[in-house]
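Per reviewer request, we include the raw input and output of the structure prediction for the construct analysed in the revised manuscript.
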Amino acid sequence: MGILFGKEREMGIISIISIIICSNGLLFYIQNVTADDLKKSVFEQQKLLQTQSTKDIARHIGSDFNLVMSMLYGVANSYHVQRGELGSEKTTKLLDAAFNAHNLTIDRLFILDKDNIMVNTLSAKSSEFFLGEDFSFRNWVKQTKVSLTPVFSYGDFERQQIFREFISYPILNQDTGQYMGMLVTSIPTVPFFAHYGNVQDINSKFLVVYDKNGIMLANGASETLIGQNFFGDYTQKFINHNKILNILTRNLLGGGSGLAVYDYGRGERLTTQYPAYVNNKALFFIQIVTPTSEIYSRINTALSLQRTEIVSLSVAASIIAIAVLVILLSRWNIILRREVKRRTQELEESYDEMKRYLKEVLSEIYGEKAPKAKK
């Protein structure tokens, strides 16, 4: 019976310990599975939201450029400009009104005559350009005179080391079609695109904007990338020639939207992209880049609370199991003491019975052989 109780107690202890280990393991397994599912869910939601956000930003950028184009069209076809009064006071007032209506986008508005000489100008700050300056050497000026259509310069560093996008609009006589000069505006690319997203901090979600040639007009990864060609040596060294990003960007410059996850050595990132259309042509190309650590940081608090709950449950389960074990051990000890007492009493009774039996036997033996007394 003692052996039985020993085995039962040993099995009970092993069972309780097993329950503690299994329950804790199950709790942590459930917690890890839940965390993985939550991360996947949040990441999928981020992809959908960021894809839509990229598309919306590209449309807003295209819309703002279209508004500038409409303004240029209106000024180029205004009464005094069409009369050839390019440098007149009345034309200056017209430029002033147009500039003030778009000064959050453009920082200069000026007119070149047919000989490429600046004859009228307005700017938000002191300009490095002056009346009478010759712009004949500018490629976008040459292209405008040849094509007689609006031309985008696709970025240029000026004397103040500000990267700008120049838009030139030919002034053509509405009756004869004769070339009279051109209306030009400039847009500082980094401040302009900063209206749509972060263009300065690589550690947060940031914006990247390309022209059709792959020149970066804004890039939150680094200011040194502004004006660089994405496929040039400098940029390729910066991104460690990452194949995924190269394929993604090449597809974007071809007019394609899409997304990808990659890591070129500065942390894993999710990038979504979409082209921006101006006059129904894809002229600018937008990427939104989000570090995945930023995406997952949104659920870290929730996961931390969940871990705390899991640990609390685990501790509570362990305490309960230990309490049960203590109670069982106490009960087993009580039962064991009762059994020992009962067996001891039985042994004592058996011993007394044996003594009496032995006494009777001896009495019988010695009683039969006892000698008779002499007379």
